[in-house]
Amino acid sequence: MSIELRVTSFEKHSAVQGAAWCGGLLLRVATVVSAIWLSACASLNPAASFPTTEAQVAASQPGAPVLDIQSWQTAEGAKVLFVASDALPMLDIRLVMDAGSARDGDQAGLASMTSALLGEGAKGLNVDDIARGFEDRGAEFSSSSYRDMGVISLRTLSDPEFREPVLDLFGKVIGTASFPEEALARIRTQMMQGLRMEKQVPGPQVNKAFMATLYEGHPYGIASDGTLESLPAIQRKQLEQFYDTYYAAGNAVIAMVGAVSREQAEAIAAQISAALPAGEAAPTLARATPLQSRKREHITFPSAQTSILIGNQSTWRGNPDHVALYVGNMVLGGGGFASILTDEVRQKRGYVYGIGSGFSAMASGGPFRVSFQTANENADQALSLTLQLVEQFIQQGPTDSQLEEARTSILGGFALGTADNSDIIGQLGAIGFYDLPLDYLQQFSQQVRAVGAEEIRQAFQRALNADNLAIVSIGPKAPEIVPVDEAPGSELAAVADEAGRGKE
User: Mean pLDDT, to the nearest integer, of 452-472?
Assistant: First the structure.
């Protein structure tokens, strides 16, 4: 669960956004005119370097934009990553700490509640003072919490007239957070009400059960947003201790993108680092252990549909198979209507409205999961077919044509990953937090171009065993594994036909 505080000045931002829109429009018009002019020149000059053959077009395919990422460390031990960008007169700052729910210990919800209370009070400031202080200067402040990390974000105009007072206020908020009792009571009530509401719908219940099943005995299995039993026991002193321990400068990554110089960025990073509690990096968590056999969990719930999650702990940040798994999953279930699971389970048989799969690479072990909802009468067939398709893909991998389609889709979307400052700041935060190389995006792009179908097949076999997948469901009754009906023209029917011909 992530509770986020956002304070925004629409009046001051409208002028900035309007100027940015007009500037963008003029740039697009200029780009189109330039393209037409250059095309005309190219027609007059055959030697101009425009792609005119299939090989030249292939060579000019998009890749990951090259970001000039500068990095250093503050005196207090915070890692800094900075990209200068004058596309907008803005500065985005993101603090990423190893302060997620994996650090809750025996107090489930502690990290989430700590994050939710940031911005609710600081020394000499109440929540209204903080909200007005950011809003009146056109700034946005937010905080959020996940399993691996706690995140604090700030967006401000880069002009010193606005930036400097915003940074002063930001320093007070992160440096003297007071966790006031009245705010604690209010946030606790909100979180507990959210947990009660979750019991009325199937999605949150099955997701929590899935993580608890895969990560039993590991911190990732803890309910990130706490429980109705754990939240009432969390006290203000525990929030302060958690913040001082895990929001310390030595446990922080400071990511910055915007219209400031390197010298200004160094001064800003030093100011932020000095404001944070003093302390060191959190100890590394033990790697989660994948399930070694199939495990079934079912929650009985009166619904018209059965929700099903299938998966296992299968990857981690730094896994050398990461690219092969990512590209392969685009073929299996991550590529929307182009994926095998959507084509076979939805399009050809109509068992589900939507189905997808994915790998989540977290610091100490991330899951592979397939998720879908199906009418109760189709649950047995949908589950059985999905398991068979996953097993088939593990054994056979993608075809060359499937791989090429996935590769083209991934490479074509790279530019969107760094389209604006908010995208870039997210990439910087992840690169810094997971200690990835500064040219990670370029390396990833190159590896996507180079990975082969056989590499993908081998990577899936190392990561997954179809017999060890957990099956977690919620609905009137647990779905059963039954013989699969083969739809005409399906991949399963084609495989069966091929096997039959081989026996003749």
Answer: 98
- 272-316 tens-digit pLDDT: 999 999 999 999 999 999 999 999 999 999 999 999 999 999 999
- Backbone phi and psi for residue 282, each to the nearest 5 degrees, phi listed first: -70, 150
* Alpha-carbon span 307 to 134, nearest angstrom: 42
Question: Which three-class secondary structure string do you get for 183-209?
Answer: HHHHHHHHHHHHHHHHCCCHHHHHHHH
CA nearest 83: which of 337, 258, 287?
A: 258
Between CA 188 and CA 231 the distance in angstroms is 7
Q: Which residue is associated with the tokens 């730094």?
A: 318
| Cα 417-422-426 angle, rounded to 5 deg | 65
Q: How deeply is 329 buried, as exposed, middle or buried, from its count of CB atoms within 10 A (0-12, 13-18, 19+)?
A: buried
Beta strands across the sheet bearing 352-359 = 295-300, 470-475, 305-315, 366-375, 352-359
Q: Write out pLDDT tens, residues 368-408.
A: 999 999 999 999 999 999 999 999 999 999 999 999 999 99
Q: Which two tokens stand for residue 136?
A: 């009146």
Global confidence as pTM: 0.84
Structure tokens given for 501:
């011909």
Structure tokens at 415: 């530019």
Alpha helices (H) in 97-159, listed in sequence order: 110-117, 127-135
pLDDT at 53: 57
| CA-based torsion, 341, 342, 348, 349: positive or negative | positive
Residue 398: C-alpha distances to residues 139, 183, 358 (Å): 47, 53, 16
- End-to-end CA separation in angstroms for the chain: 57
**Could you give the CA distance from residue 232 to residue 9 in angstroms, rounded to a whole number?**
35
Q: 3-state DSSP call for residue 146?
A: coil
Q: How many CA atoms lie within 13 A of 180 on its CB side?
A: 14
Q: What span, in angstroms and rounded, lies between the C-alpha atoms of 184 and 360?
A: 32
Contact 326, 501 (CB under 8 A): no
DSSP 177: B
Is residue 109 within 8 A of residue 229, CB to CB? The reply is no
Burial group, residue 108, by CB count within 10 angstroms (0-12, 13-18, 19+): buried
Q: Cα–Cα–Cα angle for 277, 282, 286, nearest 5°?
A: 165
Q: How many Å is the Cα radius of gyration of the chain?
A: 26
Beta bridge partners of 152: 95, 143
pLDDT in tens, 77-116: 999 999 999 989 999 999 999 999 999 999 999 999 999 9
Judge whether 309 and 472 are in contact, CB under 8 Å: yes
